[in-house]
Amino acid sequence: MSPAFKFSFAAAALAGTLASAWPASVGHATVATAKKKTAAELREPMIRQMIVKLRNPKAVELTHPLGAGRVAALSASAGVRMSAFRPMSGNASVLRLERAMTLTEAKAVAARLATDPSVEYADPDFPVRAMQVLPQDVGYTTRLWHYYPPTQNFTANNKTVVAVGGANLQNAWNLPGASGTLLGSRKVVVALIDTGVVLNHPELAGTLLQGYDFVSSDVGVASGVPANFVANDGDGRDPDASDPGDWVTNQDVAAYPSFCDGAADSSWHGTHMAGTIVGVWNNGLGNPPPPGTSTAGIAPNVRILPLRALGKCGGSTSDVIDAMRFAVGMPVPGASGPVVNLTRAQVINMSLGTAAGDCSSAYQRAVDDVVANGALVVAAAGNDGVTGITQPANCAGVLGVAAHTINGDKADYSNVGPEVGISAPGGGSPTQLQSVIQPADTAYFTWSSVLFGATHPTSFGAPPNQDKSGPAISGFTGTSSATAHVSAVAALVKSVLRTASPSQVRSILRATARPHPPGGFCATGQPGAGLCGAGLLDAAAAVAAAAANAPPPMADAGPDQTVAPGVAVTLDGRNSVAFNGRSIVSYSWRQIDNGATRVALAGPSNPQAGFTAPSGNQTLVFELTVTDDSVPPKADSIDVAVTVQSPPPSGGGGGTLPLWQLLLLAAFGLAARIRSRD
Amino acid sequence: MPLPRRLVLCLAPGILLGLPALSACAGAPAAQGDTAPPIAALIVKPRTPTSDPDALMRVVRRSLPQPAMARYARPMSGGAHVVYLIPPATRAQVPALIERLRASGDFEYVELDAPVKAQ
Predict the structure, then answer these.
(1) CA angle, A191 then A194 then A195, to 5°
(2) What is the DSSP letter of A52?
(3) Measured between beta carbons, which residues in chain A are less than 8 angstroms from residue B75?
(4) Residue A480: its chain B contacts at CB < 8 A?
(5) B117/A366 Cβ within 8 A
(6) Torsion angle, alpha carbons of A132, A137, A138, A139, to 10
(7) Minimum distance, in Å, between the CA of residue B17 and any CA atom of chain A
């Protein structure tokens, strides 16, 4: 750890302990900080403190915060009110400015202070952060061009191209003016209506809520397929949203030609979308990395509500619509009576489509219902390469998503139409601009998590992966993947600005989109002008626009934990983030009374708190409240659950592992499969 | 494909005695338990909300021209239901049957429960 980083951490911890002293010094009426920062201001570092070294300090001033008289005199010289904060090394002192100011402003203050005869030097106290935080998973540099800034080169297959079509995540995660890394809030839920997900995929660990399987037994019977053929799990609706596989054989196609398009291995489509949205960071370390872990998600701290509505050869509109309403907490017929979801989604990802045609009344009513309940619907425009997009992307109030390639041109397969709201990375071949990228190249695809299995989750892969099973990563092209990118960025926007309505989130994403590249199919004056949405998805611009609305901080208490009795448990709120040049100045931990054993919290006002896990299997819930230095202060709270669980007794025979885990352990290296659309 | 025996028995009094008699057997186990493959699944939302499949099917059937038939499938969210059109209608007749249901004025909407594909 570098000295600079140590300093940053120490300062944050001290700020927490001194928080109770702050209201008196920041609460006076002259502190007018509600003004929104301009874009230019947001690009500059925001300075909150000054380092001042006195020429002849008193002894007490070397070991204690400066006294009121000294601070008043220095404030007069500085032309800005300051308050004492703490002494520091080198016989200097740290003073806090009455408000955050740009580096330019702070340098002017320092210059005025330097003219004070009692001052040896004065400097802005730069906020020190680690270098920009990026996923360390090896796939970030070797595959995930679709997250890159639009000016960054991507090199693979001995070809280097500028990722013009990248979603520009780097400056979204490292949002200027934010006090920490923005990876999303656990309060934000993205409902994923898809094929289900692989619940134990390592890329999705800790991100999944209890979902539901909405595939009815009778899907497709009107097309001649037998009951439960589509469901492929032996029954209709049930609470198990896991993906049993959706492989289709040649015999299936021959038997049900009006329902099944073609033979295919299991797609693990929902898992791919989930990995794009929430894929775990930094689990793909090692040489080689653990199989299937070398990718990363866009918003790894938000949570996925997996809702299965697609199976073999697809699904039905009625099941999809029920999943939509379930996502926002509306009652829906379940396996045996109505079911209600208690973890409401704010974003609904629909990387699916019903054949082109006007938005049906059934779809439109469902969209209206979920929007009224606070969820943004993000839906794929479809992969037919035509003008005219699929339902529900063409419904009013839905953010329909077209796909573009690494050079930013519309992907040749992407549907377009006036209802498209935005374009996002989907890979593939460009429609109009020349490209050196060929279908075998890494940059042709968008990459995320899947399984090797060609049929069941525990099955082996198709050649050349016939000896592999378990987690893998895979390249997809399609408006599905583009949709997942938009949903994930919408979740980041919602994490920053949780009061934003679905239409506001939609507006932010569209207003901050980058223009379609000149000469491309969608550019002004070209055939697709007006048919590809507002432009190319730009995550950095979108979250910056959200942050410009002076949002409250984002509390982060870390993931839920499962621990054994008697162990020391650390609750960690250090990843909480304040926005718009603000800092988090207080942390408050408390245990929620849910009937569990009460524990004594150490450091309840610190960024990290701790306790010793009590005996007995139980779940303890804690609430973290963080407050920033806005005037008046803004706060945010979040719960974290700690489940105390006695380890199973260890017997002489040892435990057994599921087959797929054994195969996972036996797998070597990272073998990625390449697939075209779906 | 021959009509299922119990459905034929149900249909006969309808033809002879008119719609009320047909309605009377609409919710009979014969219709519910029929295994004839449907030719289309529809999403229908009645203007008068109901959770009673029999009541819904009475409304559906009175709007269908003979000999078209329908069978209740399952409830949906939002006050809608899935119903099947079953033989002796043909697939080519489905759009006209949907239009007929819409034109009845008994439904807020009638839509084909169309297939959905991952994209």
Answers:
(1) 135
(2) E
(3) 333
(4) 118-119
(5) no
(6) -100
(7) 30
